[in-house]
Amino acid sequence: MFKLVKRLTSVVAMFAVLFTFTTETMAAKKSKTLKNTQKKGFVRCGVSQGLPGFSNADAAGNWTGVDVDVCRAVAAAVLGDASKVKFTPLSAKERFTALTSNEIDILSRNTTWTLSRDADIGLTFVGVNFYDGQGFMVRKNSGISSVNDFKAGVSACTNLGTTTELNMRDFFNSKGIKYEPVTFEKADEVVAAYDAGRCDTYTTDKSGLAAQRIKLSNPDDHMVLPETISKEPLGPVVRQGDSVWEDIVRWSLNTMIEAEEYGVTSANADMMKTSDNPAVKRLVGAEGELGAALGLDNEWSLRIIKQVGNYGESYKRNIADTGILPDRGPNQLWTKGGILYVPPAR
Amino acid sequence: MENRGITFGYGFLSQESSFDVQFSLIEYDGSHSYFRAYLVGLLNTILVSVIGIVFATIIGVVVGIARLSNNYLIERTAAIYVEFFRNIPLLLQIFFWYFAALRALPLPEKAEPIFGVFFLTIKGFFVPAFVWNNLNIFIYSIIAAIISIVFVRLYSKKKQENQGIQTPVLSISIGLLIILPLLSFLLGGVSASIEIPVIEQLSQTSFTYIGGLKLPPELISLALALSLYTATFIAECVRAGVQGVNKGQKEAAASIGLTPNQVLKLVVMPQALRIIIPPTTNQYLNLTKNSSLAAAIAYPDLVLVFAGTALMQTGRAIEIVSITMLTYLTLSITISIFMNWYNKKIAIKEK
């Protein structure tokens, strides 16, 4: 009898040790950024200084846009409330320093994913939320209808510290055209200078051109040339070295895209809990333990879909309905002829 | 820094920069190194600072003396100018000169030529450029002229001290400066032709000028804003300096028969300068540092080219910001050393 009790206690003790061990690894999974975010009660998000459709503040200070929605999704997943985001407007020049120096935790600011940025400066890109490419805007009455019509001496206005500056050089060099680059720190000044006639063309990402065209004094006098001279995959960025946080941001974005793929919207998300499709049930947290793997509860993805909506809803609300780019182009699901394709959530 | 995945090193300076700059004093394009991009930015900063300092000093001295004028209208105009320009933030003034002036300037095809060869347009100020033959001989002739002027001055000073005879140094100096370079044209085989900017059509509605020299509107508006702003402070320094000279000095000088010009040149100014120079040095330093506001209006100075584009493309914030800070420090200290030397030179020499 005594022997049995002794054996039992040792078994219990073993379980106890094992249990503490598992909770220990669970706790270790909690990243520093996640812990800090939960302690502060808001997600610190770096956005642009005003790019309609992507990140733009209205007169009341409410931020909207597809880039803003990524941060809102993370806030919904981590804190349970999509409105608990503190937005920091950053210029192109400041953005990476703000992230690496711990001023913000997510940079969601129409930032192009390139090798040198990903590998060299302490950043990690987690995905793509908008496939873009660089284009040129010109005056309609200039008679320029293609990038082949540019002549030596052309002056081009653009933003300082962007991939645009490099692409522009590659492009004009390959054509053998001598050009004059005029680079400003803020987008509003680029628009003002181009509007005044300082430059013959305004070059940046095509989505940016479409959005900034609205700010010109006579938007109808200007057009975007059909050619695209570069690949610009834009996506959210996090600091290197916190893989849990990186996963949370990545899968918050993926959840939005996958929700659209399975037809889960903010309106029908609750009903989808009883869906017949196991993939849909996993997506709304009715099946599986996916949240635990990220150090979150199991309703994290449901909250994203209910509070922010799926990618299609976000695109429609911010970019299509505002008249910036009604056509989704490559930013359509892979099942519908686009290139939006995310790994499965399982 | 290692925790954050940031590496440190200055090796990037020799890498290819792969971005272009709109305006540079030395040959530069994206195939050059980041170090050369740094030099481009540095030279542009020095250029706008030197232009700013020269014009700020001229305007400042004129306005400062105008404020002491007995003519009510002149005195009031100068006072209003000073109060207006020194009380508006510099950045706003830069924006004003850039965007307001930019909109006021004509498009290249509508520009009225000034003297037939200068074109002031929204895309810049196009001026004729000299195309030189044997430029080095011409430069030697100017150096020779300057050296001989120095000798003439020394000689005339000695002559005045020994014999009390004044030599017309100014006319001799001007004569030397004209004659020696002229000789280089006639005998040294120097020749110069002038290249006048010609209008060029880029598309149906856009034009530019090709040939000649182009001063970008960013440089013009920045230099204008910096000199008009700093001139107000220099004007106050000058006023303080002149007022700081004892009235009795002027009266004594006049009583020994000096003309009003001589009173100003020989008695008032040498004493006023002692008061003017130290605070003016501060203004020169301020102007040089304020030139970094260039980034706001796309003038490719050190901050825009190096601490802007280069920083963004390499991501090396710590290295680039440290180099930029050291550069401004060096520039400021150089100006200080020069001005302190000048201050010492004009100070009272107690024997």
Write the layout of secondary structure elements.
The complex is a heterodimer of chains A (346) and B (351).
Chain A: H1 2-29, H2 32-40, E1 43-47, E2 56-57, E3 63-64, H3 66-79, E4 85-89, H4 95-100, E5 106-107, H5 115-120, E6 123-125, E7 130-132, E8 134-139, E9 154-159, H6 163-175, E10 179-184, H7 187-196, E11 201-205, H8 206-213, E12 222-224, E13 232-234, E14 237-239, H9 243-261, H10 278-283, H11 290-293, H12 300-307, H13 311-320
Parallel strand pairs in A: 1-4, 1-5, 9-10, 9-11
Antiparallel strand pairs in A: 2-3, 6-14, 7-13, 8-11, 8-12
Chain B: H1 34-66, H2 72-86, H3 90-104, E1 119-121, E2 124-127, E3 129-133, H4 135-163, H5 169-186, E4 191-195, E5 198-201, E6 207-210, E7 213-215, H6 217-243, H7 247-255, H8 260-290, H9 302-314, H10 317-346
Output the keywords:
heterodimer; A: 346 residues; alpha/beta; D-Maltodextrin-Binding Protein, domain 2; 3 domains; 5-stranded mixed beta sheet; 3-stranded parallel beta sheet; 13 helices; elongated; B: 351 residues; mainly alpha; MetI-like fold; 3-stranded antiparallel beta sheet; two-stranded antiparallel sheet; 10 helices; 7 strands; globular
